[in-house]
Automatic annotation (TrEMBL):
Protein's UniProt name: Parallel beta-helix repeat protein
Organism of this sequence: Symbiobacterium terraclitae
InterPro entries found in the cross-reference section: Beta_helix (IPR039448), PbH1 (IPR006626), Pectin_lyas_fold (IPR012334), Pectin_lyase_fold/virulence (IPR011050), SCF-Subunits/Alg-Epimerases (IPR051550)
Domain (Right handed beta helix): residue spans on this chain: 66-215
UniProt KW keywords: Repeat
Pfam families for the chain: Beta_helix
Length: 343
């Protein structure tokens, strides 16, 4: 194994990659590098370490992919900025580490993980002002931790596969969702989804865990779950969104517990469509511009219990026959439609 230096020993990063063996490290000094870099097969455990995002710039001409990991795994990329490509970084393999990297000003996705990419770690990555998604993940079991996705044209984080994890990450000012996920068993823990088209959306998957997120000031709904099933929505702070705080449309089997849902422009929690077999327990729901909790007529078999509801319009609302097809117990509130739903 060897340590190779750009530009002291090699005039380009790609030249250094071509001359490297598995496990080598490439150290990149400050400068603007007008090239695309591809890491091919037989370079497992290669590391490309720049001297800092502000110092090392991989500069594109509006086309192609800036950096592609295409044939090797366990690769580390750190300490550089990728800008001005069609796609900033593409990952086609497993077990890679992308850390302390900025991807900005690309015409499409900032980062794309293909369906063949699994168990990749994205740590302290910033993807900003890209034309499509900040990061699009189509492979299973990838990890996005302590990252920032700001001002991208579509979603901050777009997940299209199962078992992916998003932790302690900020997604703000993105055109569509802060987080948009289609797939089973997504974990979203301790994130900030602020000022996006919507805070987050989960479609069709099951078993998602959404815990301890701050979801605020999004232009439509804070958190939306469409034809999804079997998830846990726990201890989130959902406030000041222009639409509903939390919206559940179809599907069922949710456990929605101990959330604070306040000052949203429509319902605090909206059970739309035919949602069924879900629990809405011990939530604090205040000062929303429509009902604190609303059940559409098709909602059935749900339990709404021990919630504290104040100054909503009204606090509880159940459209017939939802008022008799669901359980309402020990909800602390003053106004409901029909009147008998508060204790």
């Amino acid at each position: 194994m060897a340590v190779r230096h750009v530009p002291a020993e090699f005039t380009s990063i790609q030249d250094a990659v071509n001359q490297s063996a598995p496990g080598d490290t490439i150290r990149v000094a400050g400068g603007v590098y007008g090239e695309s870099v591809t890491i091919p097969a037989d370079r497992d455990r290669l590391a490309i370490i720049g001297s800092g995002q502000e110092n090392v710039i991989l500069q594109g001409d509006g086309t192609g992919v800036g950096l592609t990991i295409s044939g090797s795994g366990h690769v580390t990329i750190a300490g550089l900025t990728v800008t001005g490509f069609a796609t900033g970084i593409q990952v086609d393999t497993d077990d890679n580490i992308i850390r302390d990297v900025t991807v900005t000003g690309c015409g499409g996705d900032g980062i794309f993980v293909s369906p063949t990419g699994a168990r990749n770690l994205f740590l302290r990555v910033a993807a900003t002002n890209n034309g499509a998604d900040g990061i699009e993940i189509s492979g299973v079991v990838n990890y996005v931790i302590d990252c920032e996705f700001v001002g991208n044209g579509d979603d901050g984080i777009d997940i299209n596969a199962s078992g992916n994890l998003v932790v302690s990450t900020q997604a703000s000012g993105n055109g569509s969702s802060g987080l948009d996920t289609v797939g089973n068993n997504t974990l979203a823990v301790g994130n900030r989804f602020v000022g996006n088209g919507r805070g987050m959306r989960a479609v069709s998957g099951g078993g998602s865990l959404v815990v301890g997120n701050f979801i605020s000031r999004n232009r439509t709904v804070g958190g939306e779950f469409v034809n999804a099933a079997g998830g846990v929505v726990l201890a989130n702070e959902v406030n000041c969104n222009q639409g509903q705080g939390l919206r559940f449309d179809g599907g069922g089997g949710f456990k929605v517990i101990r959330n604070e849902v306040e000052n949203n422009g429509a319902q605090g929690i909206d059970l739309a469509g035919s949602l069924s077999l879900s629990l809405f327990d011990d939530n604090e729901i205040k000062e929303n511009d429509a009902a604190g909790i609303r059940l559409a007529g098709g909602a059935a078999g749900n339990a709404v219990r021990r919630n504290e509801l104040n100054r909503n319009r009204p606090d509880l609302e159940a459209e017939p026959p939802a008022d008799v097809r669901n359980v309402f117990d020990e909800n602390r509130c003053k106004r409901s439609q029909p009147p008998r739903l508060c204790c």
